[in-house]
Amino acid sequence: MTRPVVGIIGNASVVHENYRVHAAGTMNIEAIAHVADCMPLVVPADPAFMSTEELMASCDGFLLTGGRPNVHPSEYGEAETEAYGTFDRGRDAVTLPLVRACIARGQPVFGVCRGFQEVNVAMGGSLYPEIRDLPGRMNHRMPPDGTIEEKFALRHEVRFTPGGPFARLMGADAVMTNTLHGQGIKDPGPRVVIDGIAPDGTPEATYIEGAQGFSLAVQWHPEYNAANDPVSRKLFTAFGDAARAFAAARRAADGALAVRRSA
């Protein structure tokens, strides 16, 4: 049977000094292909190439990946300052309406790092420009030196709401995660439920209240070592199952429509 298609939101960058590309990290592609067991499809971070409706018709779910540029603060009513870093307005224009449309339709969406922040902003929330500058907060940024294994090493605990979606999925009220982010949630959107926090109070796991489809998002990077890390495997397996269920429901609806039209 054909696997469901998962759109992996890419990031725009420049290689060879002036050659623009849209790409996604191999870790994300491997996690979708081998752990979620879905067909990965990299989505350009520019709305000039496709519409929200075309994306949703082509894919059964979406992985909102991490990325160096931040969501532009104007998207949540703040003025642009140097503290907010660099931006990618093309990606903002792709992901923010896509999140809202997926939540409304019940189409699975999984937010990771920047994707976690995109989900919050899309649903009416705001962000802090730099978590490490807040009183009592730890430095959540990626270590500047070291191997990939050292940069993605488990660094802090995330504690979930007992009985909540993450605790049920993990079979535990707390897990260890990596941490490689600068920004974080300031105010959650009206339907954004914070379901997991770091020891310093930083939100690390959310879901959307009343969402009909998969709407989990995490501030850490579960795509690293996803096939072997038990926390990551559970997240991507659940996301893949949700994409399969959505694809099956869509095929059934299309089949029923075809029968009615031929009657």
Average per-residue pLDDT, rounded, comes to: 94
- Measure the end-to-end span: 28 Å
CATH homologous group name: Class I glutamine amidotransferase (GATase) domain
Largest sheet geometry: 9 strands, mixed
Strand order of the largest sheet: 4-1-5-6-13-12-11-8-9
Which architecture name does CATH use? 3-Layer(aba) Sandwich
- Count of helical regions: 7
Radius of gyration: 18 Å
State the CATH topology: Rossmann fold
Q: Spans with pLDDT under 50 lasting ≥5 residues? A: none
Helix content: 25-40%
The CATH C-level class name: Alpha Beta
Strand-and-helix sequence, N→C? EEEHEHEHEHEHEHEEEEEH
How many runs of DSSP E, i.e. beta strands? 13
What does this structure look like?
By secondary structure, this protein is α/β, with parallel strands linked by helices. The chain has one domain: Rossmann fold, CATH 3.40.50.880. It contains 7 helices and 13 strands. It has helices at residues 26-35, 52-58, 89-105, 114-122, 148-151, 165-170, 230-262; strands at 5-9, 11-15, 19-23, 39-43, 61-64, 109-112, 127-128, 156-160, 174-177, 184-185, 192-197, 203-208, 217-218. The strands form 3 sheets. A 9-stranded mixed beta sheet has the order 4-1-5-6-13-12-11-8-9, sandwiched between helices. The two termini are 28 Å apart.
Compact overview of the structure:
The chain is of the alpha/beta class. It contains seven helices and 13 strands.
Q: Which key features would you list for this structure?
A:
7 helices, Rossmann fold, alpha/beta, single chain
